Amino acid sequence: MAMIALGLKKRSPFLIVSLLVTIAAVSVLIGSGRKTEVKRVSKPVGELVRVEPIQDGDGEICLPTSSIAGPGNDSGSLFELAALQQAPATAQSRPAQVAPNDVKAQVANRRPTRILRDSYPAYSAVAVDTTHNEVVLAAEDLLSVMVHDRTQNTPPTARSEPRRIIHGLNTEMEFVCGVYVDPASGDLYAINNDTLNLLTVFPRDARDNAVPARKLEVPMSAFGIAVDEKDQEMMLTVEDDSAVSTFRKLATGAESPIRLLQGDKTLLSWPHGIAHDSKTDLIYVTNFGSRSRKAEPPAGVPRVGTLGRGFGKKNWPLSRAYNIPGEGEFTPASITVYRRTAEGDTAPLQVIQGPKTLLNYPGAISIDSERGEIYVANDTTSQILVFKVDANGDVAPIRILGGTKTMIQNPTGVAVDTKNQELWVTNLSSHNATVYKLGASGDTAPIRVIRGAREGTPTNTFINVRLVWDTKRDELLVAS
Known about the structure:
By secondary structure, this protein is mainly beta. The protein folds into 2 domains: 2-108, no CATH class; 123-466, YVTN repeat-like/Quinoprotein amine dehydrogenase (Methylamine Dehydrogenase, Chain H), CATH 2.130.10.10. It has helices at 13-30, 78-85, 101-108; strands at 2-8, 45-53, 123-129, 134-139, 144-149, 164-166, 176-181, 188-192, 198-202, 214-217, 222-228, 233-238, 243-248, 259-262, 271-277, 282-287, 290-294, 323-330, 334-339, 350-353, 362-368, 373-378, 383-388, 399-401, 411-417, 422-427, 432-437, 448-451, 466-470, 475-479. The strands form 9 sheets. It has a 4-stranded antiparallel sheet with strand order 3-4-5-6, with no helix packed on it. The chain has a 4-stranded antiparallel sheet with strand order 7-8-9-10, with no helix packed on it. Strand 3 and strand 4 form a beta hairpin. Helix 1 (13-30) packs across helix 2. The radius of gyration is 24 Å and the shape is globular. The two termini are 24 Å apart. The model is unreliable at 1-49 and 60-96 (pLDDT under 50).
């Protein structure tokens, strides 16, 4: 077991703030209760400085010990410990010898003994372009967006061929979890979750390693997208900070949100999917059910988002660094409903929540305004739940689509196509997107299937993976 020490290269104030906010968040979590003086740190980032062996923990977690922060010294905090670890190495702490260049080259060029990965697309989100008769699928595991013929139907023994694939470093796309198609221009909007923190926009005919036509800085862990074409606004859910950020639809660069919905009264709780009902001008948000109360920053202190994003910007969600220790909670999954123009700490107009709802990790949500129905991708039960738009409280779905014949397996994306009277579902655990007649219920087979792999191809659903090695059992524990 080894501890890897990293240096930091001086980049920009935003990177510095990101470091400080992250350290502050750890300090809050440790619950020291002290108010620590924040100092700017300008150091090397991402460059390997040294590798030091540490005591074998025999499978247990190795906790840092320090004269500043430790069991014997309650006056310290992890903030101070981390700050010291970022300090320049003293002569005594520097390694006596530096590996020769040939050894470094051997390490840098070392090939892995084995690779565990899924080579086929795991579709996470879907949007239908009814104007051009195309469907857009986010292949989150492959860091790609794929565009298919809407009427494509592939047999179990074959793979579906996309018309276009957008993929590559120039695209500035990574874990794409939300997509939207402009009904007039065909422009494609893609949200990156967790890493790049960008919303990228491509012209309809973009393909391969295309450069975005424009890009917008969005909060860390933005997930779902809904657009109000009439008022030219787009609304994004923010997972970690339990918020909804609203931007101008044509916002670009470092432009600030025009509204923020965040706070205890909102009941937003790790929100994911979002949909706008153009008939009632309401927004519907799905919530996994995990949130923390936050403390407002003192007067005169600039707002800052998670990992330092949005420093000083108006209407930017408060970050996890403002979480109040001991005030977090798990709540039942829910759907919360607001006026599109709601902002601040505003309570929802409706809350769909309770055992009768069957909600369990509800992901994407889509609205059929004509029928007055909402469709919810219920991930862990592998079902599509349908509610009336005016549903409130602990109410049962009016319809459920699920079962072996439906082929629905861990759905994360759902889209209503009222023009063609169809319902699209992306199934994260089976490499496919399935299509049904709008109004389908029970264990109903799809009318068409787009397949990223032949039927029966196993998937590991590796997306944005966190990895731990269990030394006692010699097992890899993977969180995806």
